[in-house]
Each structure stands twice: as C-alpha cells, then as structure tokens.
TrEMBL record:
It comes from the Bacteria. The chain crosses the membrane at residues 18-37, 83-108, 120-142, 154-174, 181-198, 234-258, 270-294, 306-326, 333-355. GO terms for cellular component: plasma membrane. It is a multi-pass membrane protein. The lineage of its organism: Bacteria, Bacillati, Bacillota, Bacilli, Bacillales. Its main location: membrane. PANTHER family: UPF0718 PROTEIN YRAQ (PTHR43299:SF1). This is Permease. It comes from Paenibacillus campinasensis. Belongs to the UPF0718 family. The keyword Transmembrane helix applies.
Amino acid sequence: MHSVETTKPSGHFNRKTLLFALLFIVITAAGLLYVKWWPYYGKAITSATTHSIGSSILTGAGDTIPAPSWSAAWEYAAAYFKAVWKAAVLGILLGSLVQVLLPSKWLLDMLGKANFKSTAIGGLASLPGMMCSCCAAPLAVGLRKKKASIGASLAFWIGNPTINPATLIFMTFVLSWEFTLLRLVFGLLLTFGVSYLANRFAPNELVPQQVQAALPEDNEPEQPMYVRWGKAMWSMFISVIPAYVLVVLMLGAFRAWLFPAMDGAGSNSLLAIIGFAIAGMLFVIPTAAEIPIIQSFMDMGMGVGPAAALLMTLPAISLPSLLMLAKHFPGKVLAFTASSVVVIGILAGLVGWMLL
C-alpha cells in the first residue's frame, strides 16, 4: 500500500490566517463606520443644505488668526485634537493590527513590489479610510513594517486625505465643482504618480522575492498574537504621540506667520501661490478642514490661485505626519514627496489662477 502524505496548509490560506484577516476587516469596518462613514453622511447633508461645514479652524471663534503665543498654540491644539482624536486612536489601532492580523506573504504579493500595480492597490485601498495625513500615518508605518513597498505605502498615506470621497462631496457643495475637479485631477496625480515615482528613491530595498523567502509562515508566529500586538501597539504609540503633540502645538502657535493676511493684487500673485503652497504642506489640519479655511480666506479677499494651492497642500501631508514616517521611509523619499506636494500645489494654484 502506498502511504498517504499529508501536507501542511499554506500560510496564505490556513483557517487561522483567514480568521485573523476577517477579524481585521470587521474591526476596520466597525471603526470607520463609527469614526468616519456615519458622521460624514450627516456632514454631507449639512454641506448640501447650508453650503458650509463649519468655521475655519485657523481663526477659531475670532475673525482673524491670532498672533503667535502660548494661548494660540493651546487653543489650536485643543480644537485640532478634539476633531481628530477618535480617528487618531483608530489609526494607531489599525496600524498595529496590520502587523499582526494580516498575512505577511499576502500583503507582500499585493503591495510589496515597486511597480505601478502595488502603488495603485495602495491608493485604491485608501478610499474607504478618508483619514487626515496624521491619522493615516500609523497605517502607512504598519504597512512598511510588513514590507509593503514605498510606492504602495505612500499611495495609501497620501490617498486617504487627498482623494477622500467625502471631502470631494463637501467641496462640491461648499466651494464649487471646479474646485472639486481640480482637486480630483491633481489628487490622482499626487496619489498614484508621485507615489510610484518615489520608488526610484529607494533602490537599495530588498526585492520582494528576497523578503518573502526570509518571512516565517504566517501560521507559525514566533510569539502569541496578543504579545505581538501589544508590542506593535506600544511601539506605534511611542513613535507617534510625543512628536505629534509637540509639533501641533508649535504650528498652532505660529499659524499667523504661515498664513498672513493678504489683500489687493498680492492676494492672487505667483508669490502668494508659492508661499501658501509651502505653508499648506507644513501645516496640520483635520479631515476636510481645508474647505472652511479656503472659504473664509476667499471671503476675506484671497485670490483663487493661492486658494487652489491650499486646496492641494493643506490636506496632502504635514510636518507632524512626515515626522511620524521619518524612521520608516528613506529621507530622500520624504524629501521628494514634500517637494512634489509643493510643486503640485503651485501648479494647481496656477491652473486655478488662469482658469477659475
């Protein structure tokens, strides 16, 4: 008689791996429903009926941006964290769960290659998240720790705030469809084009086959899942929170210098477009906060050009989110990304200046 050889199920498809992946999907969907999807449904109705989604976070209760001071720092940080704390907690939670619940080899197959396919998958995966740059950063870090490629991780990070479907809806009702179209076109270029090109700035990374060969089977982790999750959660918290809080305080204190009042010809000049593109890239805001900021600036006399620049650079990235990613992405990649955001902001400003 011939003996029947039993084979061990692959780490890709064993029952435990599938259950962990399903658990991640359930937690993600429940968290996004509570933090993003349901609140944004109500906000979409508000934007359609009132053509507003609130006041500018830059000015707060006042009519102008306050001068630099400790009070200005504290007031902005309080308003900002009140708006984002639920999403920030969810981002850190999911960023740690990515590392322990999703199968490493599956993620590597989908997101591990430095090609446009992996970049496109990362960008498309960002659409349900609709997070700001800082809340999406822990997930991008988690993907990098699972050996996702530079392009895929950046596309996920940038796509969350830049091609956010809810923000596009709010923008259409509050600003105009022209602003929405401008945001969508340049947002797609930034999310998929810049992220893909960023792979070229990390040529020394291991190719996916080398990484995959070194990975343990997903059904045979070296430590229990709860131990690995606890370590991932603590590492994420320590690497994210301190710098996050300090830089938000700093930016809140000096926001009047970053966004000076302008009127007359200077409010719609090339110099204004460049200055606001740089300021928008550095500054940190909650999801969709660029809409009331731009609305209030234009009410005060800002030209379409600088407003279009802010439309792209304010949500895309920020100094705090760049610092969150600094240990997990090559410096050249982050410098290229930040520069590209500014350039795209300037191009969007010039298009807005000439056409809108």
